[in-house]
Amino acid sequence: MAYKTGEIRIPDPPRGGASLTVTSETFRDGETIPRECAFDGCGGDNRSPQLAWSGAPAETKSFAVTCFDPDAPTGSGFWHWLLFNVPASVTSVPAGEPSPSGSTSGRNDYGKSGYGGPCPPPGDGPHRYVFTVYALDVPAIEGIDANVGGAALVFNMRGHVLAQGTLTGRYGR
């Protein structure tokens, strides 16, 4: 299978092609992410945006949420937020609360647990920040813990994704 440069993908597509609707009160799809959500090292407050999702299949047992910058000049993108084992009863994350009760935060590419906001290099132009919510058929992803990085999280979700949806924001400085 051929992939486009910067394309976000998971090893196995959602079973049955189901999709989730992902929205935010903080920003709209394709629009600029507010400065308060930017990384604190880039003049922001590192405040995670509000996210909500709907349309999960009835057999959903948990969710995972990621934020990925495919435009980062790393050769492999940059993971800004990894949240998993989110209980199936949770369908939103409030602004500024990047880890709902019962969920686990993984290690972002800043090397920290939790949300790490946008911080593209100066002069790089706006980057895309792709927030993806995955509906999973397991209550917890086996074999990973809070030290997991983005690639390992996505790999371990393989075969368990029932549906997914994305919301993309932009940020430049």
From TrEMBL:
Renumbered to this chain, the Basic and acidic residues biased-composition regions fall at 1-12
> Which residues does UniProt call coiled coil?
none
UniProt source species? Gemmatirosa kalamazoonensis
The UniProt entry, under NCBIfam families, shows:
YbhB/YbcL family Raf kinase inhibitor-like protein
List the protein's name: YbhB YbcL family protein
Q: Which Pfam families match?
A: PBP (PF01161)
SUPFAM superfamilies reported in the protein's UniProt record: PEBP-like
> Which stretches of sequence are listed as region Disordered?
1-20, 92-121
The protein's superkingdom reads: Bacteria
